[in-house]
Amino acid sequence: xxxxxxxxxxxxxxxxxxxxxxxxxxxxxxxxxxxxxxxxxxxxxxxxxxxxxxxxxxxxxxxxxxxxxxxxxxxxxxxxxxxxxxxxxxxxxxxxxxxxxxxxxxxxxxxxxxxxxxxxxxxxxxxxxxxxxxxxxxxxxxxxxxxxxxxxxxxxxxxxxxxxxxxxxxxxxxxxxxxxxxxxxxxxxxxxxxx
DNA sequence: TGAATGATTTACT
DNA sequence: GTAAATCATTCAA
Length: 195
Fold this sequence. Notes:
The chain has about 200 residues and is mainly beta. The protein has one domain (about 1-170): Methylpurine-DNA glycosylase (MPG) (3-methyladenine DNA Glycosylase, Chain A), CATH 3.10.300.10. Helix content is about 10%, strand content about 30%. It has helices at about 1-5, 95-100, 115-120; strands spanning about 10-15, 15-30, 60-65, 65-75, 80-90, 135, 135-140, 150, 170. Strands 1, 2, 3, 4, 5, 6, 7, 8 and 9 form a 9-stranded antiparallel β-sheet that branches. Helix 2 packs across helix 3 (about 115-120). The longest helix is centred in the middle third of the chain and has 8 residues, at about 115-120. The chain is globular. The chain starts with a helix and ends in a 24-residue tail after the last strand. The protein binds a DNA duplex (13 and 13 nucleotides) through strand 3, strand 4 and helix 3.
């Protein structure tokens, strides 16, 4: 599921401005069993409520007092799994992104991180729960990456054994990744078939 | 009612 | 490389 998100185009129409990006990095969060997920333990709260709803919706949350993250709810109602969008490549509205991000010198700094891309897209708390199948926030088909790499997730070391799981999917050829892949290993698959 | 913490980013040493 | 910024949500009392 998370793998299928790579290459898709994330489009957001807001205030007459249209911004779009190609997803190059995503992480899977697997419901009640995943210690790194907000839905761990089956706790159903106001914040993660949307993860328990139908798939295809946006789960946006505020973290660290200053950043937003965007997820795609991926599983059936009642099972809280989601895919975190960690990085995209700018396609449309790059100037809008640039102004929102404070005119960074390097184009890559616009969207190479979860908090960065949300700021660039202008996504915030109020967009949580949006249906991603229709405007103003939606996904469109795009070319799949030629080389997809599975690597451990980022920033979830506290998750015990789950931190080692290869639940992060990246476009190996993209230069917009939030963190460069650890090793140029070419071996993939052969790990937990969880998705 | 109060304290702890996080799916991060940025700046500074 | 290390530390600070900063607040909604969560856990404890």
